[in-house]
Design goal:
By secondary structure, this protein is an all-alpha fold. It has one domain (28-136). The protein is built from five helices and no strands. It has helices at residues 31-43, 46-64, 69-117, 122-130, 133-136. The longest helix is centred in the C-terminal third of the chain and has 49 residues, at 69-117. Keywords: Membrane, Transmembrane, Transmembrane helix. The chain crosses the membrane at residues 47-65, 71-90. Residues 1-25 are annotated as: Disordered. Residues 10-25 have a biased composition (Basic and acidic residues).
Length: 137
């Protein structure tokens, strides 16, 4: 199986087509990650619920009042745009959480394996680093 660039087999640590998820990139905490975290915090707040409620009520009012088609389209397009932004935000949060959980499971598995084999305890350090990782990513 090639990695999309024709340079040989795809490796597990190198994604196809050279695209990596933001949670897998070095230097977690870039501008996009900070924006996504702030947006995630805002969208789980009461203020955002109020904004959504106003948008929905506006959508209903525009259609109930049989407003001009332009206003109906504007109300629908606004709701669509908010929906798409929320979908992207949800997917970003989901992927970061999946990445953190997988790193924790890998660290636990390595620690159990080392204990079983009676080897040195290098996995213990990895396990300690993995604890609380979901808050870092």
């Amino acid at each position: 199986m090639s990695n999309g660039s024709g340079s040989g087999p795809a490796r597990k640590d190198r994604p196809r087509f050279g695209v990596r998820h933001p949670a897998e990139r070095a230097g977690h905490g870039g501008r996009y990650e900070r924006l996504a975290e702030a947006a995630s915090n805002f969208t789980s707040s009461r203020a955002f619920y109020a904004v959504c409620l106003v948008l929905v009520l506006n959508f209903i009012a525009v259609h109930a009042a049989h407003a001009a088609l332009t206003w109906q389209i504007l109300a629908g397009d606004t709701m669509t745009a908010v929906t798409l932004l929320l979908l992207a935000l949800l997917k970003n949060s989901e992927r970061r959480a999946e990445h953190a959980v997988q790193r924790k499971l890998d660290a636990i598995a390595a620690a159990v394996l080392e204990q079983y084999e009676g080897k040195t305890r290098t996995a213990r350090d990895d396990l300690r680093q993995a604890i609380g990782m979901d808050e870092e990513i």
